[in-house]
């Protein structure tokens, strides 16, 4: 079931939900223009800059990294040497980036070990953290990869550059491209993937503490997760607000406007109405900050699904679980192995990223490959296969929809 679904659009999708992923890098960035940080934000471009400006910024950044003044080359070398020494010192003396300092929970640091742990009944507060990878098999088109989507459609959407579509300042001046795209990608046109159904199953089993998603496609809701179980870190299409008087509008109202090819305007003050998704230069929802503080210390298993953990502050959440809490990454490639120095800069001495390749790793496991297949494997190993497949709407029906 998962196989056929995954095969439908594999390789050509990475989801529009990647855009707000990127969008959040703006508030998270906090104005820092250091290359390392920008890299950590997923390599997204600042929409206010041309490529040339950016390249020259990057050069400046290389030169000025971690120092205030312009120095000559010799000083740069000294600086690198010093930073290298400092890093080594911290790694050895402060035990950074080597793995867990918590208690060993898994008998075996493997998928089987995680399965055994879940089956033991000791794990009751699972947090799932998801990215675009859990929605790719829904057929949500990738607009960010060169050669597809927006990169071929700059004319259709009348954009100066692809990311402008999620830039709040651009939106205020020219909202039309966003609403044309919103119509094309309107939630409801897509079905939840087997990965979404797996998260629903965790909820059914009473094991899900919370689902944190970077996606804005609302597919977790379509899969029947209750609203209080979901934190949409990058916002949602389910509600909208007037950017002037803040009057709230429903999804139905917005949908009607969008499908009539109108620019949604506030009935009270005639300002623009925008879905509550996080644009560039906008803050993340308050719910994100409130719940992460109370949830993560309680977490006893972290499942990271379909995200490369490149966008902050979402990616950093993996460090907020207790030091003994096992973390399972289900993703196409390894991710989240943080730089100890970055952890230090963020004020987290204890842990920085997944310790997948560390010899002292006692809790981090990667199940590499397609997210849907990973979830199916997990369900199978847990002995939940029948229940899981019953949850997923019939394969034939989905196959037809995918072909339409
Ligand atoms: Zn208004």
Automatic annotation (TrEMBL):
SUPFAM superfamilies: DHS-like NAD/FAD-binding domain
Annotated keywords: Metal-binding, NAD, Transferase, Zinc
Protein's UniProt name: NAD-dependent protein deacetylase sirtuin-2
GO terms for cellular component: nucleus
Catalytic activity: N(6)-tetradecanoyl-L-lysyl-[protein] + NAD(+) + H2O = 2''-O-tetradecanoyl-ADP-D-ribose + nicotinamide + L-lysyl-[protein]; N(6)-hexadecanoyl-L-lysyl-[protein] + NAD(+) + H2O = 2''-O-hexadecanoyl-ADP-D-ribose + nicotinamide + L-lysyl-[protein]
Catalytic residue list: 234
Pfam families hit by this protein: SIR2 (PF02146)
